[in-house]
Design a protein that fits this description.
This protein is an alpha/beta fold and about 475 residues long. The protein is about 40% helix and about 25% strand. It binds adenosine-5'-diphosphate (ADP).
């Protein structure tokens, strides 16, 4: 197909089987036609990255800085167009799409700076006359596998540090959202990356992802996606004694105490549970509410939900865009049935909504009278579905918050310094929010979780160096 957006391997655009990229707000709208790589093309990409590594890992810091800087500037300058592409292929609102695009620009800006700030340590040896230097070096070929829910920000927060520290890359974006990934790679190659440093292989996880995961020539593997795939890839990596970093699911608690500012609590939950159509690993899905404020809170939240505008991602009035595809929407509906069968009370939402165009529209759903052992309170749904669990007091709230297989983000709404402080200390999560939604994080500080949510070093900010570099200790006798 002549207008096919191709894969990028060893500095050349390479054609493949074609897949249509469909707009979930309007199924008649084809965003574009994108190549799907096969396993042999994935091997070619890995070989190209391997061949490019020696020169790139020794490249000048100003070269890396300038490329990342130029990429940041172009993303920022094209934020409306790229944000629109993102919203069109993924379904988050245009404001969210542009916001995510700006975040990608900020991440490249941050790592453009980090390229110039790489430091090591000089340490006195325990042996007289000997000097010790501790330095960081690039790891090698990094495999990057990304999900559909943040089509530009997640690729950015993996690509930017990988390139900054001198690694070469084989990048496989999610099959549902190749558009943003393709645009990002196009920007980076025009920004001046030498051939082979960055390779794009779009396509299926079971074909392209698998080929990357199985390759001995991939020295580090970073993945964001489901727990089951993450666990498989971590084991695959362990077999090869390869560095790996897995960002997976969440079942994030948000505690509402009786002393909370009700408006703040309702705002936090509306944003945390339902914005981006609830399709975030940091989404608040277990709302743990102190008895004394429970009924008032549920009534206020239900009213807010009923006022949310669900519709085409590109309409200016839309607050909640469509679900990403039919599979995800069917899964959300299945969990609505499971919740009702388990005895939870569906307060509002869950139904499919008709709109002028055919798309995957669903009213955000709120369940009350849930217990923490219900499947809807234990399994990640990854849609606009939240559960409310009533508790007697703060201590019970903390226990419920921590009683989960996951540990990504945890939030609390309270005006009590004592409870806020205790929650920050004792919530078993990688990220804790006080009077802020569980989702929505800064781009320059560590991102990641505990338990089944994350495996391996943190992402983002300076902590990213843990994964994208390897430490060398050099001794000199002179
Ligand atoms: P999601 O529910 O977000 O689609 P997945 O874990 O299925 O979660 O997908 C996340 C990413 O992992 C996607 O890019 C997908 O293509 C890729 N992927 C899926 N299965 C595999 C696999 N077996 N090996 C490697 N990558 C895979």
């Amino acid at each position: 197909m002549s207008d096919q957006k191709r894969n990028f391997i060893g500095g050349a655009w390479v054609a493949g089987d074609t897949a249509a990229n469909i707009n979930p707000s309007d199924l008649t709208d084809i965003v574009g036609h994108y190549a799907r790589a096969d396993a042999a093309q994935a091997q070619d990409a890995i070989a190209a990255a391997k061949a490019a590594f020696p020169a790139w890992s020794r490249s000048g810091l100003m070269e890396r800085h300038a490329i990342l800087r130029r990429a940041s500037d172009e993303i920022q300058a094209r934020k409306e167009e790229l944000g629109q592409l993102l919203s069109r292929e993924e379904g988050k609102t245009l404001a969210e799409g542009i916001g995510e695009t700006v975040r990608a620009a900020q991440i490249f800006d941050f790592f453009a700076g980090e390229a110039l700030r790489l430091t090591g340590e000089t340490v006195a040896s325990v042996r007289p006359g000997v000097g010790v230097e501790v330095t960081r070096e690039a790891v090698g070929v990094v495999g990057i596998i990304t999900p559909w829910n943040f089509p530009i920000a997640i690729p950015a927060w993996k690509l930017a540090p990988a390139l900054c520290y001198g690694n070469t890359v084989v990048f496989k974006p999610a099959d549902l959202v190749p558009g943003s990934a393709w645009a990002l790679v196009d920007i980076l190659q025009r920004a001046g990356l030498p051939d082979g440093v960055l390779n794009l292989v779009m396509g299926r996880g079971s074909v392209v992802g698998q080929a990357i995961a199985e390759s001995r020539d991939v020295d580090a593997l970073t993945f964001t996606g489901s727990v089951s795939t993450g666990a498989t890839l971590a084991m695959e990596s362990a077999k090869l004694m390869r560095k790996s970093q897995m960002e997976m699911g969440g079942k994030n608690p948000f505690v509402v105490l009786a002393d909370a500012d009700l408006d703040v609590a309702v705002d936090c939950v509306t944003q945390g549970a339902f914005y981006s159509t609830g399709q975030r690993c940091t989404a608040s899905s277990r709302i743990i509410v102190e008895d004394a404020i429970h009924d008032q809170f549920v009534a206020a939240l239900s009213e807010r939900i009923s006022a949310l505008t669900v519709g085409d991602a590109l309409d200016a009035e839309t607050q909640i865009g469509p679900v990403v595809d039919e599979t995800q929407l069917a899964q959300n509906e299945e969990y609505i049935r499971i919740g009702e069968a388990e005895g939870a009370r569906l307060v509002i939402g869950g139904e499919r909504l008709a709109r002028p165009t055919e798309g995957f529209f669903q009213r955000p759903a709120l369940f009350a009278d849930c217990t923490n052992d219900m499947r809807i309170a234990r399994e990640e749904i990854f849609g606009p579905v939240a559960t409310v669990i009533r508790v007697a007091d703060y201590d019970a709230a903390l226990d419920v918050a921590n009683d989960t297989d996951f540990g990504l983000s945890a939030g609390i709404a309270t005006t009590s310094l004592k409870h806020a402080t205790d929650f920050k200390r004792n919530a078993e999560a990688g990220m804790v929010m006080v009077n802020l939604p569980t989702a929505g994080v800064d781009f320059h500080v560590p991102f990641g979780g505990r338990k089944a949510s994350s495996f391996g070093p943190r992402e983002q900010g300076r902590y990213a160096a843990e994964f994208y570099t390897t430490v060398k200790t050099a001794y000199t006798s002179a």
